[in-house]
Amino acid sequence: MTKSELIAELAAANPHLLSRDVELIVQTIFDEIVEALSRGDRVELRGFGAFTVKQRDARVGRNPRTGDAVPVDEKRVPFFKAGKELRERVNLVKNKA
Amino acid sequence: MMSTVTRANLAESIYSQVGLSRHESADLLEAVLERISLALESGDSVKLSGFGTFSIRQKGRRTGRNPKTGVEVPILPRSVLVFRPSQILKGKVNGEAPGEDDAE
Protein backbone atom coordinates (compact mmCIF):
# COMPACT_ATOMS: atom_id res chain seq x y z
CA MET A 1 0.00 0.00 0.00
CA THR A 2 1.27 3.44 -0.90
CA LYS A 3 0.43 6.82 0.61
CA SER A 4 -1.99 7.61 -2.23
CA GLU A 5 -3.76 4.26 -1.80
CA LEU A 6 -4.06 4.94 1.92
CA ILE A 7 -5.58 8.35 1.17
CA ALA A 8 -8.00 6.85 -1.38
CA GLU A 9 -9.19 4.18 1.09
CA LEU A 10 -9.72 6.74 3.84
CA ALA A 11 -11.55 9.10 1.48
CA ALA A 12 -13.87 6.27 0.40
CA ALA A 13 -14.62 5.40 4.04
CA ASN A 14 -15.26 9.08 4.90
CA PRO A 15 -17.44 10.44 2.09
CA HIS A 16 -18.25 13.59 4.10
CA LEU A 17 -14.59 14.70 3.79
CA LEU A 18 -12.92 16.22 0.78
CA SER A 19 -10.16 14.10 -0.69
CA ARG A 20 -7.69 16.95 -0.27
CA ASP A 21 -8.57 17.19 3.43
CA VAL A 22 -7.88 13.48 3.84
CA GLU A 23 -4.56 14.05 2.08
CA LEU A 24 -3.79 16.94 4.44
CA ILE A 25 -4.64 14.77 7.46
CA VAL A 26 -2.29 11.97 6.37
CA GLN A 27 0.44 14.46 5.48
CA THR A 28 0.07 16.30 8.80
CA ILE A 29 0.45 13.09 10.81
CA PHE A 30 3.68 12.02 9.12
CA ASP A 31 5.10 15.55 8.96
CA GLU A 32 4.56 15.90 12.73
CA ILE A 33 6.31 12.58 13.38
CA VAL A 34 9.27 13.68 11.21
CA GLU A 35 9.41 17.04 13.02
CA ALA A 36 9.32 15.36 16.44
CA LEU A 37 12.16 12.98 15.52
CA SER A 38 14.18 15.88 14.07
CA ARG A 39 13.94 17.59 17.48
CA GLY A 40 15.13 14.36 19.10
CA ASP A 41 11.71 13.67 20.62
CA ARG A 42 10.06 10.27 20.64
CA VAL A 43 6.59 9.52 19.28
CA GLU A 44 4.60 6.92 21.16
CA LEU A 45 1.36 5.56 19.73
CA ARG A 46 0.08 2.87 22.10
CA GLY A 47 -0.97 -0.32 20.35
CA PHE A 48 0.73 0.78 17.12
CA GLY A 49 4.32 1.45 18.11
CA ALA A 50 6.94 3.99 19.05
CA PHE A 51 9.31 6.01 16.90
CA THR A 52 12.61 6.96 18.52
CA VAL A 53 16.01 8.26 17.48
CA LYS A 54 19.05 6.13 18.25
CA GLN A 55 22.57 7.45 18.51
CA ARG A 56 25.23 5.55 16.53
CA ASP A 57 28.81 6.20 17.59
CA ALA A 58 31.58 7.01 15.14
CA ARG A 59 33.33 3.84 13.95
CA VAL A 60 35.85 2.66 11.44
CA GLY A 61 34.05 1.06 8.55
CA ARG A 62 35.49 -0.73 5.57
CA ASN A 63 35.00 -0.32 1.88
CA PRO A 64 33.70 -3.81 1.05
CA ARG A 65 35.28 -3.73 -2.40
CA THR A 66 38.80 -2.59 -1.55
CA GLY A 67 38.96 -3.46 2.15
CA ASP A 68 40.20 0.07 2.96
CA ALA A 69 39.39 1.44 6.40
CA VAL A 70 36.98 4.40 6.17
CA PRO A 71 36.02 6.56 9.15
CA VAL A 72 32.24 6.72 9.70
CA ASP A 73 31.01 9.74 11.67
CA GLU A 74 28.61 9.40 14.57
CA LYS A 75 25.03 9.74 13.45
CA ARG A 76 21.46 9.49 14.57
CA VAL A 77 19.05 6.98 13.07
CA PRO A 78 15.25 6.83 13.23
CA PHE A 79 13.96 3.60 14.80
CA PHE A 80 10.48 2.06 15.04
CA LYS A 81 9.43 -0.55 17.55
CA ALA A 82 6.03 -2.11 16.91
CA GLY A 83 3.57 -1.99 19.80
CA LYS A 84 2.35 -5.17 21.45
CA GLU A 85 -1.05 -5.16 19.78
CA LEU A 86 0.25 -4.58 16.25
CA ARG A 87 3.08 -7.09 16.75
CA GLU A 88 0.56 -9.74 17.71
CA ARG A 89 -1.84 -8.90 14.87
CA VAL A 90 0.92 -9.14 12.28
CA ASN A 91 2.14 -12.45 13.62
CA LEU A 92 -1.26 -14.08 14.14
CA VAL A 93 -2.55 -13.87 10.60
CA LYS A 94 0.67 -15.18 9.10
CA ASN A 95 0.66 -18.22 11.35
CA LYS A 96 -2.93 -19.07 10.47
CA ALA A 97 -2.29 -18.76 6.74
CA MET B 1 15.01 17.99 26.98
CA MET B 2 13.49 15.07 25.11
CA SER B 3 9.73 14.91 25.24
CA THR B 4 7.21 12.39 23.97
CA VAL B 5 4.67 13.09 21.26
CA THR B 6 1.43 11.13 21.66
CA ARG B 7 -1.89 10.62 19.89
CA ALA B 8 -3.23 13.73 21.64
CA ASN B 9 -0.49 15.92 20.08
CA LEU B 10 -1.04 14.48 16.59
CA ALA B 11 -4.82 14.90 16.88
CA GLU B 12 -4.25 18.51 17.96
CA SER B 13 -2.12 19.13 14.84
CA ILE B 14 -4.88 17.72 12.62
CA TYR B 15 -7.39 19.90 14.46
CA SER B 16 -5.38 23.08 13.82
CA GLN B 17 -4.32 22.19 10.24
CA VAL B 18 -7.56 20.82 8.81
CA GLY B 19 -10.32 22.47 10.79
CA LEU B 20 -12.15 19.30 11.81
CA SER B 21 -13.53 19.05 15.33
CA ARG B 22 -11.15 17.72 18.00
CA HIS B 23 -13.24 14.59 18.25
CA GLU B 24 -13.17 13.95 14.52
CA SER B 25 -9.44 14.73 14.35
CA ALA B 26 -8.80 12.01 16.92
CA ASP B 27 -11.05 9.58 15.01
CA LEU B 28 -9.25 10.24 11.73
CA LEU B 29 -5.84 9.69 13.31
CA GLU B 30 -7.11 6.36 14.60
CA ALA B 31 -8.50 5.50 11.15
CA VAL B 32 -5.10 6.18 9.54
CA LEU B 33 -3.29 3.92 12.03
CA GLU B 34 -5.95 1.22 11.63
CA ARG B 35 -5.73 1.22 7.80
CA ILE B 36 -1.97 0.84 8.02
CA SER B 37 -2.35 -1.95 10.59
CA LEU B 38 -4.88 -3.80 8.40
CA ALA B 39 -2.56 -3.67 5.39
CA LEU B 40 0.34 -5.00 7.46
CA GLU B 41 -1.87 -7.67 8.99
CA SER B 42 -2.68 -8.95 5.50
CA GLY B 43 1.06 -9.17 4.78
CA ASP B 44 1.14 -6.08 2.59
CA SER B 45 3.91 -3.52 3.05
CA VAL B 46 3.08 0.16 3.49
CA LYS B 47 5.19 2.68 1.61
CA LEU B 48 4.85 6.31 2.70
CA SER B 49 7.00 8.50 0.48
CA GLY B 50 9.13 10.99 2.40
CA PHE B 51 8.63 8.99 5.59
CA GLY B 52 9.53 5.34 5.19
CA THR B 53 8.33 1.80 4.54
CA PHE B 54 6.74 -0.67 6.94
CA SER B 55 7.12 -4.27 5.87
CA ILE B 56 6.70 -7.78 7.20
CA ARG B 57 9.69 -10.05 7.51
CA GLN B 58 9.45 -13.82 8.05
CA LYS B 59 11.69 -15.30 10.70
CA GLY B 60 12.49 -19.01 10.55
CA ARG B 61 12.40 -21.50 13.40
CA ARG B 62 15.44 -21.43 15.65
CA THR B 63 16.45 -22.84 18.97
CA GLY B 64 16.68 -20.39 21.80
CA ARG B 65 17.76 -20.88 25.37
CA ASN B 66 16.27 -19.70 28.61
CA PRO B 67 19.13 -17.52 29.85
CA LYS B 68 18.33 -18.28 33.48
CA THR B 69 18.02 -22.04 33.36
CA GLY B 70 19.96 -22.85 30.19
CA VAL B 71 17.08 -25.01 28.96
CA GLU B 72 16.69 -25.10 25.17
CA VAL B 73 13.35 -23.83 23.88
CA PRO B 74 12.23 -23.83 20.26
CA ILE B 75 11.40 -20.38 18.85
CA LEU B 76 8.71 -20.93 16.27
CA PRO B 77 8.64 -19.26 12.83
CA ARG B 78 7.07 -15.82 13.12
CA SER B 79 6.40 -12.62 11.23
CA VAL B 80 7.88 -9.39 12.44
CA LEU B 81 7.25 -5.82 11.44
CA VAL B 82 10.21 -3.75 10.29
CA PHE B 83 10.39 -0.05 9.46
CA ARG B 84 12.88 1.36 6.96
CA PRO B 85 13.12 5.15 7.23
CA SER B 86 13.34 7.15 3.99
CA GLN B 87 16.52 9.03 3.08
CA ILE B 88 14.62 12.24 3.85
CA LEU B 89 13.78 11.13 7.38
CA LYS B 90 17.33 9.83 7.96
CA GLY B 91 18.70 13.18 6.81
CA LYS B 92 16.32 15.21 8.96
CA VAL B 93 17.19 13.47 12.21
CA ASN B 94 20.80 14.43 11.44
CA GLY B 95 19.86 18.06 10.84
CA GLU B 96 20.29 17.96 7.07
CA ALA B 97 17.96 19.78 4.70
CA PRO B 98 16.01 17.41 2.43
CA GLY B 99 17.92 16.55 -0.73
CA GLU B 100 21.44 16.76 0.65
CA ASP B 101 21.37 13.22 2.03
CA ASP B 102 24.47 11.11 1.49
CA ALA B 103 23.81 7.94 -0.44
CA GLU B 104 24.83 4.91 1.59
Order of the strands making up the biggest sheet of chain B: 2-3-6
Mean pLDDT of chain B: 91
Residue runs with pLDDT of under 50 for 5 or more positions of chain A: none
Structural class of chain A: alpha+beta
Cross-sheet strand order for the largest sheet of chain A: 1-2-5
Radius of gyration of chain A: 19 Å
Q: Sheet with the most strands of chain B?
A: 3 strands, antiparallel
Give start-end ranges of low-pLDDT stretches of chain B: none
| CATH homologous superfamily identity of the largest domain in chain A | IHF-like DNA-binding proteins
Provide the structure class of chain B: alpha+beta
What is the CATH topology classification name of the largest domain in chain A?
HU Protein, Chain A
- CATH class category label of the largest domain in chain A: Few Secondary Structures
Q: Greatest contact pair?
A: A-B, 51 and 55 residues
State which percent range the strand residues of chain B make up.
25-35%
- Shape by Cα distribution of chain A: elongated
Number of strands of chain A: 5
Individual helix count of chain B: 3
Sequence of secondary-structure elements of chain B: EHHEEEEEH
Quickly count the domains of chain A: 2
Strand content of chain A: 25-35%
Organism (chain A): Ameyamaea chiangmaiensis
Family (chain A): Belongs to the bacterial histone-like protein family.
Function (chain A): This protein is one of the two subunits of integration host factor, a specific DNA-binding protein that functions in genetic recombination as well as in transcriptional and translational control.
GO molecular function, one term (chain A): DNA binding
